Every structure is written in C-alpha cells, then in structure tokens.
Amino acid sequence: MTRELRLTRAFVDLADSLGDRFDPLDLFARLGDHCTDLLAVDAVGVVVADSRGVLRTMSSSAEELNLLDVHQVQQEEGPSVDCFRTGEPVSADDLRAGVRWPGYTAQALAAGYVSVHALPLRLEGRAIGAVSLLNRLSDTLPAEDLAVAQGMSDVAALTLAHWPTVVRRPHDLLTSLQAAVSAKASVELAKGLLVEYAGVSFTEAMELLRRYAEKEHRPVTTIARALAERSLEPGAVLEGERQP
Fold first, then answer.
1. Disulfide engineering: 66 pairs with which of 60, 93, 121, 160, CB 3.0-4.6 Å?
2. Helix or strand or coil: residue 151?
3. From CA 70, how far away is CA 136, in angstroms rounded?
4. 100 with 51, same domain?
5. pLDDT per residue over 159-208, tens digit each?
6. By C-alpha distance, which of 93, 102, 76, 192 is closest to 134?
7. pLDDT of residue 243
8. Helices (H), 39-142
9. Are residue 61 and residue 155 in the same domain, yes or no?
10. Domain-embedded: residue 226
11. How many CA atoms lie within 13 A of 130 on its CB side?
12. How far is it, in rounded angstroms, from Cα 172 to Cα 204?
C-alpha cells in the first residue's frame, strides 16, 4: 500500500463519527496511531481543554508519555501547554540543549525522549488542546510530516465537535469537550478498579477494558462508565477474559 493511500485512509478514519461505537478517547488514540505509523515520530500525546479551559490528558501512545503529559497539565509547564496558550506550534529539536521547561525537560530526558513538537488541536481558528510528537533521537521533523500531523489533528477536532452521540445543541463544542473529559475520567476510575481487583498494571487494565469492550461490541467508555457506576462488576470483565 502506498503512503498516499495510507494517508487517505487515515484521514477518512479520523473523520468517521457516525458509527454506533464512536468513542472520543478512541478517536484520539487513533490519531496517535496514525501519527506513529505514518510519520517519523516515536510517541504521541493528546491533551484537551475542558469547559473551563483547563487542560486534561486524553491519550498517549506510551505509559511514560502519559506521566509526562500529566506533569505538563498539573505544573502548567511544557510544550503542549505553551502550544495551547498561544495557538501556535512549539518545537524543541534537542531538549538536551536547554532548559526551556526545566521539570518537563528532566522528565522527558529520563523517559528517553530528546525531541518534541507540539501542534495545536484547533477548531474554527482557536486551540482546544494540543498534540505532542516525541522522538528518542534529536532531529527536526520534515515540514511535510508536521503539515500532515496538523491536518490529521484538525480533522480529529472537527470530528469531536460533530460527535453525534452526545445529547446537546448542534455544534456545542464545549459540551463535546466536557463529555470527552468525563469519558476519560470514567476510564481512569475503571482502570483503578481493575488494578485493585485483579492486581494488574494500569496498562494491563486498559487492555482488559479494550478487549471486553470489543467482545461486547460496545465503546470502551460505556464499559468504563458501567464499572464506575457499579452496574458492571470488575469480576465480569475478568470472567469475559477467560471465556472463549
């Protein structure tokens, strides 16, 4: 399959919000997957602002990147934070060359990342979040790759804004953003319940959620919300794992 065809399929995939199983967290995860598959990047993280304008972590392609993004939003220091505030791309081709973000830089280097590019997740000309592209090698991403990543990020933002499964007024972006943030909170709570119940890691808990959701043909956030509300017991997820 040519790169052009893969790019076309990626954009079509990110624009699809009509399926019964559409999930905003899955949308951002797919954005990360397409970036790492098509571009010269090792890891991708997505943060989104809630209805009050506070950044929240949405998706990360690696556990260490998730911790890095949590640091960003909690300490209000890092490339994604600057990108969201300015609405402009932010780049650091070699984090070893300076201390622009002291805490973030130290944690990124400890995790093995030495290069970062942050692009605005934007809609109608304003940033609603940011997408960070990290590399383990010091290098400048080709302008073509950055343009593709920005285009896919813009499509993902537009898809979220037209999320049809949320009961809301037409194009009520703030409600969509808050719904995505709430979905993420439910997933984190569900992961914690599975970690406590089954003694697994958070990464393994997420995989359990995904596999159970796939088996039940339901969105991950629906399963997570059921666990959080106690209408589904953690044991059922583990039992589903054992069944053929």
1. 60
2. helix
3. 19
4. yes
5. 887 765 444 444 456 667 777 777 888 888 888 888 888 888 877 888 88
6. 93
7. 54
8. 63-75, 79-86, 102-110
9. yes
10. yes
11. 28
12. 35
Q: Which domain, by its residues, includes 231?
A: 180-242
* Spatial CB neighbours of 150, under 8 Å, sequence gap ≥ 6: 89, 119, 120
Q: Which of 117, 134, 165 is the last residue of a domain?
A: 165
Residue pair 162/152 in contact (Cβ under 8 Å)? The answer is: no
The answer, yes or no, to whether residue 19 has pLDDT greater than 70, is: no
Which residue bears the tokens 């605005």?
Answer: 120
- 140: DSSP letter: P
Q: What percent of the chain has pLDDT over 70?
A: 90
The partner residues of 146 in beta bridges, in order of sequence, read none
Does residue 119 have a pLDDT over 90?
A: yes
Residues 79 and 9 reside in one and the same domain: yes
Amino acid at 1: M
Dump pLDDT digits (tens) for 24-37. Answer: 888 898 899 999 99
